[in-house]
Amino acid sequence: MRIVALYGTESGHAEELARGIENAVPQRAVEVINMADAEPGVFVPGTLFLISCATHGGGELPGFAQFLHDDLRDLSPDLIGVRYAMFGLGDTSYEERYLRGARQFDELLAGLGATRVGPFGEHDVMSRQDHVELGVAWARAVLAEIGT
Ligand SMILES: Cc1cc2nc3c(=O)[nH]c(=O)nc-3n(C[C@H](O)[C@H](O)[C@H](O)COP(=O)(O)O)c2cc1C
Predict the structure, then answer these.
(1) Residue 67 CB-density burial (10 A; 0-12 exposed, 13-18 middle, 19+ buried)
(2) Alpha carbon of 110 to ligand 1 centroid (Å)
């Protein structure tokens, strides 16, 4: 199964996580793709997407993630056969807007027929935990859950 670490970032944390995942599972070739370089056609069946996505602007997706989200929403492709796992990066001081961007992306993918696997991962800046460490543990748990 093809594995893609797809990330949506504004200030780099989600990219660091995607690269961390790439390095953490050397036994598997993980492709790292920036949402800024992706189009809706990136979501092909038979692929597992390990998605790390930040929230910015007080509850919004990072700019390029928003473009991808809106293009997907407008095109509404059938994503049956696509599997994904979601990891949100955010800050609980934004309260009800915490992780809103990642949740929005998650809802869209599920609504288009993609299957979410594993737990919804999260990193809160306020926790002072390391986002790469936490995210790599999440990715390992997702891969273990689906027997990869
Ligand atoms: C201007 C600004 C607005 C933010 N707004 C939110 C928000 O609404 N909700 C949230 O959960 N996190 C918010 N955050 C926190 C970021 O999502 C968090 O710092 C994350 O780790 C950034 O990831 P990135 O470096 O991949 O962009 C905001 C951060 C900044 C700087």
Answers:
(1) middle
(2) 23
